[in-house]
Automatic annotation (TrEMBL):
This is Putative gluconeogenesis factor. One of its GO terms (molecular function) is LPPG:FO 2-phospho-L-lactate transferase activity. The lineage of its organism: Bacteria, Bacillati, Bacillota, Bacilli, Lactobacillales. It comes from Streptococcus himalayensis. CDD domains: CofD_YvcK. SUPFAM superfamilies: CofD-like.
Amino acid sequence: MRKPKIAVIGGGTGISVILDSLRKKDVDIAAIVTVADDGGSSGELRKSLQHITPPGDLRNVLVALSDMPRFYEQVFQYRFAKEDGPLAGHPLGNLIIAGISEMQGSTYNAMQLLTKFFHTTGKIYPSSDSPLTLHAVFTDGREVSGESQLAKHSGMIERVYVTNTYNQDKPVASRKVVQTILESDLVVLGPGSLFTSILPNLVIEEIGQALLETKAEIAYVCNIMTQRGETEHFSDSDHVGVLHRHLGQSFVDTVLVNIEPVPKEYMTSHQFDEYLVQVEHDFAGLQEQVPRVISSNFLKLEKGGAFHDGDAVVEELLSHIRVSS
């Protein structure tokens, strides 16, 4: 029997937890990574090197899927000190990805080269080969442009969409992204920020349509904590409702939700100030929207934050996968 084909869609920090556990399994992995980040190092590089997609999320995914020695990882992830002038705050890996993207003529080509160089388990595709700008329309009608700007505005987000940053062309998916989704046995969304890590991929029309057409099982790994400026007061059912509303119909088959309580005294707000409270569990609301709800202990308390236990999530995902012929 062939290896199960699994596509994981989202942003680098969130899905890296799942990818790190998946690469230890006998599966065929493809990571589809958002390119709408315009904050921090990625944002600065976007200003300096136009037409290069932001490298930060891709860097984290590359590390998660690589078998590089720990020292190499530390070198790749090294961030220049704040007193280092124009290099201040840039991880070395971001500069490498940006440089090779320029050399190879596209970020897609750069990632194919780097996956070989770092011996990754699986493929890595930017969701688009052009840098994208994320736009959010709030329920009161206001519109905000730029991923990094969303959390600065109060109110509820009604919907998001993306545009090409440097031209008026319609955003399109990178090569092999649509084919990967259509040929997968399992597509995993998240974990990660709903409006800024997951949806920027799904609202690229080709990707959204592929998710509606694929025969793959589509699983959503719901966030453990709500996020300031994005999902305040959200239940797990609310998260799924937003996904379905953006694609115009129900498409998620399975939802994984953590039901293990996060100790109130545990969260250190100075480290993770974007997190608010634990996402409320609405089992009845989920049952109305998806065929399968998996409620379990997926919690991992680490470094003052509440994260997903990647191994527990992957074991649950693989236990339900069906390999098509």
